[in-house]
Amino acid sequence: MKKILIVDDENDIRELLKDVLKLGGFEVLEAENGQIGLEKFRKYKPDAAIIDLEMPVMNGVQLTQHILEERPDFPVLIISGYLHKYAVDDLKKLNVREVLAKPIDITHVFNEVKKLFS
User: Fold this and answer.
1) Residue ranges of the Response regulatory domain (predicted)?
2) Domains in the chain, number
3) Which domain holds residue 60?
4) CA-CA to 1 of 20 to 30 Å: which in 17, 18, 27, 32?
């Protein structure tokens, strides 16, 4: 079973993603900020991550940089309601697989996660 790390400071988003991914056969780990996300990434060795950009303590860009320094081919999906603050092309230069805007289309997110493993 593939393990997905969800890192988002919005509990409702984490819960929605967790429920859908579990129904789809994935194991799910959750973190409410980048620092906790990095700790869980190192401890539990997930297979992919869904990361929000705007979070307290450590934002999604910082978290993604740390993750990809340690595992350059690790699949990361970015989701954010603040994409206007970031250049999507710059995010993709980090080797992010996909950048999705909030509000999220849960079916689209699920399909993007499945594509990571096909």
Assistant:
1) 3-117
2) 1
3) 3-116
4) 32
How many residues comprise the chain?
Answer: 118
Q: Do the beta carbons of residue 44 and residue 3 sit within 8 Å?
A: yes
Give the separation between CA 17 and CA 38, rounded to whole angstroms: 19
**Which structure tokens are listed for 57?**
């303590």
| 3-state DSSP assignment of residue 14 | helix
User: DSSP string of 54-68?
Assistant: S-SSS-HHHHHHHHH
The domain that contains 32 carries what CATH number? 3.40.50.2300
Q: Whose structure tokens read 């996909």?
A: 98
Residue in this structure with the two tokens 């705007």, named with its chain if needed: 54
Full-model pTM: 0.92
